[in-house]
């Protein structure tokens, strides 16, 4: 096996490290009792708290290590593997540190932020492990620029074919090319929402003004159906052949658009989680400093 | 390689083709490269330290700066041939492999490459 995923890096070495750390923390927690109830204030609580704080600082250092390209301090893959496993262990260590005592205060805020950072990290882990494969399968080895080049080629052919057709069909096809929508805001990228439109003129339901109707053309289905419905009405064989060629071309265009839209969606998911994970990490570090300072201030 | 006047482009024992500092910037290698990987470029700008980049936004930072304009001194030196040499001078192997967090970038030998191609075909 040439590739080794980050969870199984070096026979899941860091999973064992995390497991040992968790077992040690549980053992320390279990020694609490007697007059003082378990919590952050016992010596065991301080030990677990110190361990958790050191872990948070070390986990955040991945951001520096991964940019230190010349560093020989382990590989970034090893660091990331340890980051994932020790980050997961941190949930339990922090919970044992506070012994489940929560309230509306800065201490619980730090805990909540930590949980959010870890949850966003789990999302990131999922997308990093699953989406690159989906990206490669979707694009078929082509770059996004190559997919766009293919699309522009089909657009050009579509315009040429549309010119040879009935003006009603020609306008519909031209407008569907011009009003194809890709990308957009964050939600539209993440959910691959398609707001494409096209202009339709129905001879049976002609508008009083004679103007064409602008209608939705999600996934290019409406324009393909529109052209397909015109085939039986074609007066000449050449016209029917043109319409058939147009349907084939629009279907090829639909397939390329699907691939581009999926590519944009997968790339957006691959990036989105970091916009949550990193700023929340900085917020967590600030909350952690306040938590530590207030703890010692009110000793 | 045959067309390089100062014999600056050579192959290392591991198979990587690299261009050393004796390049005179004639561009023969770029014209003759069958893979289109050799480019004639001005000397790259120096990178700032991580913290000065992170905190103060100094210098070009990580990656290549877009629309980078070379300085007069760099222009006076002229363009030289550049290509990926698998970071042969670093001693730690290719930096892209070192920096890849998911292990997607790997450096493999020619025999492993044939195995991989064989696996893909199956």
Set down the secondary structure blueprint:
The complex is a heterodimer of chains A (299) and B (122).
Chain A: H1 9-30, H2 43-60, H3 62-65, H4 76-98, H5 106-139, H6 144-164, H7 167-178, H8 186-190, E1 197-200, E2 213-216, H9 221-230, H10 237-297
Antiparallel strand pairs in A: 1-2
Helix pairs in contact in A: 1-4, 2-4, 4-5, 5-10, 6-7, 6-10, 7-9, 9-10
Chain B: E1 9-11, E2 17-19, H1 28-32, E3 39-41, H2 50-56, H3 72-77, E4 80-82, H4 95-99, H5 110-121
Antiparallel strand pairs in B: 1-2, 3-4
Brief overview, please?
The complex is a heterodimer of chains A (299) and B (122). Chain A has helices spanning 9-30, 43-60, 62-65, 76-98, 106-139, 144-164, 167-178, 186-190, 221-230, 237-297; strands spanning 197-200, 213-216. Chain A has 299 residues and is an all-alpha fold.
Explain this structure to me?
The complex is a heterodimer of chains A (299) and B (122). Chain A is mostly helical. Chain A folds into 2 domains: 9-139 and 272-297, no CATH class; 144-267, no CATH class. Chain A is built from 10 helices and 2 strands, in the order H-H-H-H-H-H-H-H-E-E-H-H. Chain A has helices at 9-30, 43-60, 62-65, 76-98, 106-139, 144-164, 167-178, 186-190, 221-230, 237-297; strands at residues 197-200, 213-216. In chain A, strands 1-2 form a two-stranded antiparallel sheet. In chain A, helix 6 (144-164) packs antiparallel against helix 7 (167-178). The longest helix of chain A is centred in the last third of the chain and has 61 residues, at 237-297. Chain A is elongated, with a radius of gyration of 29 Å. The two termini of chain A are 54 Å apart. In chain A, 26% of the residues are buried. The model of chain A has no long low-confidence stretch (mean pLDDT 91). Chain B is of the alpha+beta class and 122 residues long. Chain B has a domain at 86-122. In chain B, 29% of the residues lie in helices and 10% in strands. Chain B has 5 helices and 4 strands; from the N terminus they run E-E-H-E-H-H-E-H-H. Chain B has helices spanning 28-32, 50-56, 72-77, 95-99, 110-121; strands at residues 9-11, 17-19, 39-41, 80-82. In chain B, the strands form 2 sheets. In chain B, strands 1-2 form a two-stranded antiparallel ribbon. In chain B, a hairpin with a 5-residue loop joins strand 1 (9-11) and strand 2 (17-19). The model of chain B has no long low-confidence stretch (mean pLDDT 84). The interface between A and B is medium-sized, with 22 and 16 residues.
């Amino acid at each position: 096996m040439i590739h080794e995923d980050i969870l199984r890096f070096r026979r899941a070495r860091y999973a064992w490290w995390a497991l040992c750390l968790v077992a040690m923390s549980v053992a320390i927690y279990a020694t609490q009792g007697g007059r003082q109830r378990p919590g952050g204030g016992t010596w065991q609580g301080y030990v677990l708290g110190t361990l958790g704080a050191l872990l948070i600082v070390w986990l955040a250092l991945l951001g520096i290590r991964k940019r230190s390209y010349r560093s020989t301090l382990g590989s970034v893959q090893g660091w990331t593997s340890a980051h994932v496993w020790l980050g997961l262990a941190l949930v339990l260590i922090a919970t044992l540190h506070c012994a489940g005592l929560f309230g509306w205060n800065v201490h619980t805020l730090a805990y909540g932020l930590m949980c959010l950072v870890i949850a966003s990290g789990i999302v990131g882990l999922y997308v990093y492990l699953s989406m690159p494969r989906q990206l490669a399968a979707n694009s078929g080895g082509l770059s996004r620029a190559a997919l766009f080049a293919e699309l522009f080629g089909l657009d050009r052919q579509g315009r040429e074919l549309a010119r040879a057709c009935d003006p009603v069909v020609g306008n519909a096809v031209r407008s569907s090319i011009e009003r194809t929508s890709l990308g957009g805001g964050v939600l539209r990228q993440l959910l691959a929402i398609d707001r494409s439109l096209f202009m339709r003129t129905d001879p049976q339901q002609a508008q009083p003004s004679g103007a064409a109707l602008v209608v939705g053309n999600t996934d290019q289905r409406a324009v393909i159906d529109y052209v397909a419905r015109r085939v039986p009405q074609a007066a000449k064989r050449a016209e029917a052949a043109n319409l058939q060629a147009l349907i084939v071309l629009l279907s090829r265009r639909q397939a390329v658009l699907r691939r581009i839209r999926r590519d944009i969606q997968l790339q957006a998911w691959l990036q989105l989680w970091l916009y949550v994970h990193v700023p929340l990490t900085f917020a967590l570090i600030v909350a952690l400093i306040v938590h530590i300072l207030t703890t010692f201030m009110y000793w | 390689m045959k067309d390089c006047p100062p014999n600056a482009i050579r192959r290392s024992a591991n198979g990587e083709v690299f261009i050393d500092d004796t390049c005179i910037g004639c561009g023969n290698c770029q014209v003759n490269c069958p893979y289109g990987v050799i480019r004639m470029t001005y000397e790259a700008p120096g990178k700032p330290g991580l913290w000065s980049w992170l905190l103060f936004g100094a210098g070009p930072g990580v990656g290549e700066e877009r629309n980078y304009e070379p300085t007069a001194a760099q222009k006076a030196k002229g363009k030289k041939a550049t290509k990926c040499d698998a970071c042969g001078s670093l001693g730690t192997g290719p930096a892209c492999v070192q920096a890849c967090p998911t292990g997607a970038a790997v450096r493999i030998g020619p025999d492993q490459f044939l195995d991989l191609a064989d696996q893909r075909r199956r």
